[in-house]
Amino acid sequence: MNDETRDAVRPIRSERLSGIPNVRHGFFTREGGVSQGIYAGLNVGLGSDDDPSLIRENRERVAGWLGRPGQPLSTPHQVHSPDVVTISEPIPEDARPKADAVVTATPGVVVGVLTADCGPILFADDAGKVVAAAHAGWKGALGGVIENTVDAMVEAGAQRDAIRAVLGPSISGENYEVGPEFEARFRAADAANAQFFTPSGREGHFMFDLPAYTIMRLRNAGVDADQIGRCTYSDETLFYSYRRTTHRREPDYGRQISAIVLSN
């Protein structure tokens, strides 16, 4: 990847993670990619109907920016589950496990998750020895993917109270309307979850603050948590959004990646 291409890829970075030695990370946006049309930009979604050769080029650009040109991005086949895999070598593109978080203590292995409204979370311990990426939509967050990721990091050698986690760009509470059954499910799980719902303009419907709920689960899991605070739905220039695509009745949508690697 030449300097011009590298400069075109401009991920959002967190100060919380940037200060950890031996860790490189990025919450990648649409900037710097080669996809066109409804996928315009840095679409890395293997499950999208975009041209596979363009997807591969976009993924290579992400790997190159992270200092691992030519290496596979270890992203799982996401199924909105609480399941986590711990790996010691890259995941082949054609053998992705069904899971929603990836943990590694192996330097050079890039772990990441794809999103288009759900919450991408990047984790690292203060010692720069263990990193992880988790995909936390409402179902995964409610089901325990956050806690399971933290537990897997501890099993891999991290100290729980030394883990930092950052929630990347995701849909904001102002743009996430849900129905009564959705709200009832969260309330049944924990009455305190009512704080994350406010009435919407439609009778019986609510606006759900997924980022706030995610941060609460992270902090309750005993880790230092923060968020980027960017809405994927409202910023079409930078982000893909499943819900925006649905509202427009478009046939498909791209996915952005959030990724992290131990540099040595």
Question: In terms of topology, how is this protein built?
Answer:
Elements: H1 3-8, H2 15-18, E1 23-27, H3 52-65, E2 85-87, E3 101-104, E4 111-115, E5 119-125, E6 131-136, H4 138-143, H5 145-155, E7 163-167, E8 177-178, H6 180-189, E9 197-199, E10 206-208, H7 210-220, E11 224-227, H8 242-248, E12 256-262
Parallel strand pairs: 2-3, 7-11
Antiparallel strand pairs: 1-12, 3-6, 4-12, 5-6, 5-7, 8-10, 9-10
Folded structure, characterized:
The structure is a single chain. This protein is of the alpha+beta class and 264 residues long. It has helices spanning 3-8, 15-18, 52-65, 138-143, 145-155, 180-189, 210-220, 242-248; strands at residues 23-27, 85-87, 101-104, 111-115, 119-125, 131-136, 163-167, 177-178, 197-199, 206-208, 224-227, 256-262. It contains eight helices and twelve strands. The strands form three sheets. A six-stranded mixed beta sheet has the order 2-3-6-5-7-11. A three-stranded antiparallel beta sheet has the order 1-12-4, with no helix packed on it. A hairpin with a 6-residue loop joins β9 (197-199) and β10 (206-208). It is globular and about 55 Å long.
- Overall, the morphology is globular
What is the mean pLDDT? 96
The topology string of helices and strands comes to HHEHEEEEEHHEEHEEHEHE
Strand order of the largest sheet: 2-3-6-5-7-11
Major sheet characteristics? 6 strands, mixed
Instruction: From the 3D structure, determine the CATH topology.
Output: CNF1/YfiH-like putative cysteine hydrolases
In percent, how much strand structure appears in the residues? 15-25%
Poorly predicted runs = none
Q: How much helix is in the residues? A: 25-40%
- Euclidean distance between termini CA atoms: 21 Å
CATH architecture descriptor: 4-Layer Sandwich
Give the name of the CATH superfamily.
CNF1/YfiH-like putative cysteine hydrolases
Tally of alpha and pi helices: 8
| Rg over alpha carbons | 18 Å
- By helix and strand content, what is the structural category? alpha+beta
Strand runs, count: 12
Integer tally of domains: 1
Which class in CATH terms?
Alpha Beta
Oligomer: single chain
